[in-house]
Design goal:
Blueprint lengths: L4 E8 L2 E14 L4 E5 L5 E3 L5 H4 L1 H5 L2 H5 L3 H7 L7 H14 L14 H4 L19 H14 L12 H14 L7 E4 L5 E6 H13 L7 H13 L1 H4 L5 H8 L4 E6 L3 E6 L4 E7 L4 H14 L5 H6 L1 H4 L2 E3 L5 E7 L4 E2 L2
Antiparallel strand pairs: 1-2, 1-11, 2-3, 2-9, 3-12, 4-6, 5-6, 7-8, 8-9, 10-11
């Protein structure tokens, strides 16, 4: 088995120009590989696909009820948001409920993502802060857990902190991996992140999507998946992949993209999910390959196929709109291994 296979090829004038390699794993809630392309057990960092799992200690411990978090605020725990006004407002509400200032957030500060996407004009220097960081919702949940349990907020990102120990424990349980087999690294927001086989990430999302049916994390998975599918605009934002995909999924798809070419999609009705990694991190190729997987799995009807056509990005156009090339899927899903 080739560990990485061509997922998306681009052609210009009929000549191959780029080839984006990667792997796909499709599993059920038990981790059985139902279909794959390349090595379904390819080890990859989960990046922001991990956020719903990182929220488990807080949700399992009754944090949302203690602080009166709404479904909108639960969605923000799982978000890689644009830093739009609605996102900042929800994060501010979370911080107020736990009695902390935004300066307690240790995610850092960057220009809001909506600027890169062309959703709005660049804000004036000094007019944005940590709340605008795309991971501020996750970090607000981290702080809330610390307040709830009386743990120090000043070092909540240290791997030895009780919060991060609890996260590693619950991530491992959800994914079906021994904690010591999770490969640790640091995400762009300075939080610990973990690499795991794609099949285990897919298993975690199949369980997340299954909600109350999960025997271990049922109520927590139900709350998180419900919040994500009800408020995909908060999970991502205007013009973003997760917003579009969850809207097209009509409540059946729980989706989350991560940096550098990783995405996971779970189906509520099927109790299945897939995880995909494009090894060069190309976003356009990732989205095109994700649509292709959905199509090959038979998860799309004609309306959904048409709605996802922009994300399939089959045609490559010039600035003037002339079609100058195309993207083609270079893989077919094979049976389970």
């Amino acid at each position: 088995m080739d560990p990485l296979v061509p997922l998306i090829d681009t052609f210009r004038g009929g000549t191959l120009e780029c080839r984006h390699f990667g792997a796909v794993a499709v599993t059920d809630t038990q981790g059985r590989v139902l279909a794959h392309a390349g090595d379904p057990h390819w080890l990859t960092f989960t990046r922001s696909t991990l956020k719903a799992l990182q929220a488990l200690p807080f949700v399992q411990g009754g944090g949302p009820a203690k602080f009166g978090f709404s479904d909108r605020q639960l969605a923000m725990l799982c978000a890689s948001h644009n830093g739009e006004a609605q996102h900042v407002e929800v994060v501010q509400g979370m911080l107020e409920r736990v009695g902390l200032d935004h300066r307690a957030l240790q995610c850092g500060c960057h220009v809001p993502m909506y600027v890169e996407l062309g959703v709005g004009p660049a804000p004036a220097p000094g007019s944005f802060d940590e709340r605008h960081h795309n991971c501020s919702g996750k970090h607000s949940g981290f702080l809330a857990w610390c307040v709830q349990h009386g743990e120090p907020v000043e070092r909540y990102l240290e791997t030895g902190h009780p919060l991060q120990q609890a996260i590693r424990r619950d991530v491992a349980r959800a994914a079906g991996v021994a904690p010591e087999h999770l490969k640790a690294g640091t995400d762009g927001c300075s939080a610990p992140n973990y690499a795991m086989p794609l099949s285990n990430l897919a298993r975690a999302y199949a369980r997340l999507a299954s909600g109350e049916r999960d025997p271990e994390f049922g109520s927590s998975f139900a709350a998180l998946s419900r919040a994500m599918t009800a408020h995909p605009d908060l999970v991502s934002g205007t013009g973003r992949n997760d917003l579009a995909f969850m809207q097209v999924g009509r409540g059946d798809w729980v989706t989350k993209v991560g940096a550098d070419g990783v995405q996971a999609v779970g189906s509520v009705s099927r109790g299945q999910a897939f995880a995909i990694k494009v090894i060069d991190g190309n976003k356009t190729a990732l989205y095109a390959a994700t649509v292709e997987v959905l199509d090959q799995l038979g998860w799309l009807d004609e309306r959904q196929r048409e709605e996802l056509r922009p994300w399939r990005a089959a045609e490559i156009a010039s600035v003037l709109g002339a079609v100058v090339g195309e993207r083609r899927a270079g893989f077919r899903l094979a049976g389970g291994v």
